[in-house]
Structures are given as C-alpha cells and as structure tokens.
Please model this.
Amino acid sequence: MKKLSMDELNRISVDEFKEAEKTPLTVVLDNVRSQNNIGSVFRTSDAFRVEKIALCGICSTPPHRDIHKTALGAEDSVAWQYYEETADCVKELKAQGYKVFAIEQVDDSIKLDQLSNQQIIKPSDQPKVAIIFGNEVEGVQEELLPLCDGSIEIPQFGTKHSLNISCAAAIVIWEMFKLVNCEV
Model:
C-alpha cells in the first residue's frame, strides 16, 4: 500500500470545477462566527461538488485569511453568496423551488439515518435541497424553523448534545450527497 500522489488523484482544476455538474445542494450558514468553521464547510462542499454556500448574518466572507486557512482554496471553487438576513435567503430558496431543512434538534426532527426511509427527499424527484447550519452556540435561529420544510437531526449517543458545525456539516453533506446524487 502507498499513498497516491497529487497526479494520481486526478483532481479537477478550479475552472473545471466551476463547469462541472453540481450536487443540487445549497449549504446555508446562519450566523456562524468561526472563520475556520466556514473554511471547513467550503472544503467539504468542494469535495462533494455542492452547488452553493449562502453565508448569512455575522458570517465572514472570502477573501479572509482564516477562511483560507481551512478552505485551502475551496473558497475559490465553490460558489457563494452573502445575505444580511438568513430569513431572506431561505425565502429566496423556497421561491426557487428548494426544499429547505434546518439541521437542528427539534421535537419533530427526522433522524439523519432515517431520512431515506422517510421518502422526503427522493433522487427521482431531482430535488433542489438546502440545509441550514446554525451558530456555534445558539444553533439555527428559532424564527427560521417555521420557514423550513423540516428539521434533520444527527443521532448522537454520548454525553454531549451537539457536534462542532464543521463536523456536523461534513456528516450531513455526505449523507445528502448520497441521497440527491446527481451522478457527478
């Protein structure tokens, strides 16, 4: 066994990424304060060819040295847009036909591992999906929940009740990629 070289990995260029078919998924960051977390979400979004990232509220935007530190250039490949108010972003996505889900623990949330069983998102429907990740301390704003089509929760079995947003985003983006895969 040996590690693959950069040439052997056959990665596409930023220009090729921009032209490539994307996963029909928009990631919404609701008042995420850490630039390192934002950069990590960019990097994960690049890995799974996410369509777009919406940076809302207090989120920093590229170019930013701390975003770049964890994004490692993914902030140049993944499309992004800034919204002063997350609610405006969600309303715009809904008007464009997106199904919008908060990644949050609420009384009627759907467990991530049960999402495919619930038939809420079906690849055959060619859905456009948006997922909202909230602030590191407060989570997704309460006022956004009624605007969403539902809430998805990552099952957890330890003593803590949450994951770091960059970890949660990686888990959920991977699961959504598998669920809505557009044959990239």
Observations:
- Residues 26 and 88 are 14 Å apart (CA to CA).
- The two ends are 28 Å apart (CA to CA).
- The chain has eight helices and seven strands.
- The helical segments are 6-9, 14-19, 35-47, 65-71, 74-77, 86-95, 115-118, 165-180.
